Amino acid sequence: MTTFFKKYINALSIGYSFLISSLTRKSMVLGMPVAVSAELTNYCNLNCPECNSGSGLMTRNRGYMDIDLFSKVIRELGPFLFNINLYFQGESMLHPKFFTFLRKCRKIHTTVSTNGHFLSVENSERLVKSGLKELIISLDGFDQNTYSLYRKNGDFSRVIEGIKNVSEAKKKISSSMKLVIQFLVNRNNEHQINEVRHYARRMKASLRLKSMQIIYPENIGTWLPSDKKFRRYEHDSHGFRIKNSLPDRCPRLWFNPVISWDGKVLPCCFDKDAEHIMGDLNEDSFTDIWNGPKYRIFRKSILSDRSMIEICRNCTSGMKGVAN
After folding, report:
1. Is 57 helix (H, G, I), strand (E, B) or coil?
2. Which of 47, 103, 136, 148 has the maximal Cβ count within 10 Å?
3. Mean pLDDT over all residues of the chain?
4. Do 289 and 278 form a contact (C-beta atoms < 8 A)?
């Protein structure tokens, strides 16, 4: 069986099992995930106030993923993956062996998200030559003052220079890598959306306008945009709450798990502090963890009452009408 055919058969199997599980409220898993996020590191050079890593809210240990651990992930999951994200918490390009990780993903559609502070001319050329399919660069403001309100310790001009370097490197070698500028819309920068839109066009980049997750409820008023289509939250008699009905299902539990830098398998990208560890790849295979008792119990809890799970209460999966 060719790898291409194997991937599609697996995707159909896992999709079918998610559909049946959603309809029957009984957890069933046939197949392996079609995507995965690998956290190369949870260290970051910035201190963004509503980020678990940057704000200091994160309580788990910090470190860098071991390349041998990542090789194990690729060996086991590679034949099934349509996409791999080389990011979770932290800044992936801080990893000393960042480009070694990229090389191991050449046969898989790979996405990297970065805060843009390490996009020198040399790094930009290495990125576009690496086989990377998509590079997301965060640009949450269009001048230093606005940008640094959220991107604490960030250098706006350095990020702009980095975007230029990537754009020119793409043009130089006629790279098909997709360049995405991600703009986290908040009350302080929403007036700059049109400027950023025009800038993205000049850089031959896509623009992704994203609503902002807020982890400190007392800061809602500081960050919540006036434009409702960019608000994840609404106000009612109980205060602010997410605009999500939280249906009792979630595709993330079937399609795209997260692996932390130290090998912990997590249910999804909203488990930022690794509160729900499904297993440890230093001790077990991914297959055993994926089909193991902790995953079965967690999937059942999602199908029974998703709203009872804390990490789900700030989740955008299933949300409609919001740029998430």
Report:
1. coil
2. 136
3. 93
4. yes
